[in-house]
Design brief:
Largest sheet: 2 strands, parallel
Structural class: alpha+beta
Strand content: 15-25%
Radius of gyration: 14 Å
Order of helices and strands: HEHEHEE
Helix content: 25-40%
Shape: globular
Number of strands: 4
Length: 78
């Protein structure tokens, strides 16, 4: 959670038009996922986020959802 808060502090000082987060919420427990989502929602007014995740709570807050699967080895499919 410390790394997440540091990342959001950098974003607060110098906002970026978009940010890519890859499995940032993976090590968090349920209560910290809720905190993460609340903080993330505060930044949505000035930044867009591309989040790669498997967490259902994080997926549930998305405006747009893209899913990629790999049915055959080496062949990705949307």
């Amino acid at each position: 959670m410390t790394a997440v808060s540091l990342l959001f502090q950098f974003t607060q000082v110098k906002p970026s038009p978009f940010c890519v987060l890859d499995e940032l919420d993976a090590p968090l427990d349920e209560s910290n996922i809720n905190r993460f989502i609340r903080v993330l929602q505060r930044f949505l007014s000035h930044s867009q986020f591309i989040i790669i995740t498997h967490n259902k709570r994080t997926i549930g807050m998305a405006d747009v959802l893209y899913g990629v699967t790999m049915q055959n080895k080496g062949v990705s499919k949307m």
